[in-house]
Amino acid sequence: MRPSRQPPETATIKRRWVLTRIVQGFTFSGLAFLTYPFVKSWIPSFTEDTSMDVSLETLKPGEARLVRWRGRNLYVQRRTRAMQQALAAADLVLKDPDSVESSQPAFAVNGFRSLRDDIFVGYSNCTHLGCEVAAVNDAGIGFKCPCHQSNYDLAGRVLKDAAAPLNLEVPNYRFVSGNIIRLETVTV
To answer: Domain 52-184: which CATH class?
Structure first.
């Protein structure tokens, strides 16, 4: 008796199936190698230093500087004596005057919302829809949203009749020296 041979179609089908699986395996492994760097860039590293030092040397009294940090803009403003006195007078009607509902570090829960009375640091995004606010200094108003006309005082606190629900967000920072602040992320 002769050994039974498979018909030629069956051998071709098995060979095609094996080759298809090999190509699929290489395709999926190549795709994994290509997507790994993109996925890794979206996940923050816990060992990565995300602090940034900002010098206040050239910042004149009454001037606000826009600084880019971690993909967002923030204002660093040096307040004049008149600005500090306007904040202390507190003649504006505010939604959250004590900054109870707003996002800021514990040190910023005060009338000036800052570590020092003469320096304000806050993100430049309106808390209504995230528009970029403009720094103005007009009758105690420190920041104004051009989209829906929300006004904030010199400490970034939102006025009562504004569309924005919360005060401007204050990042975590500390003074490294008299004229240098270090912006830092909070590690929990």
So the answer is: mainly beta
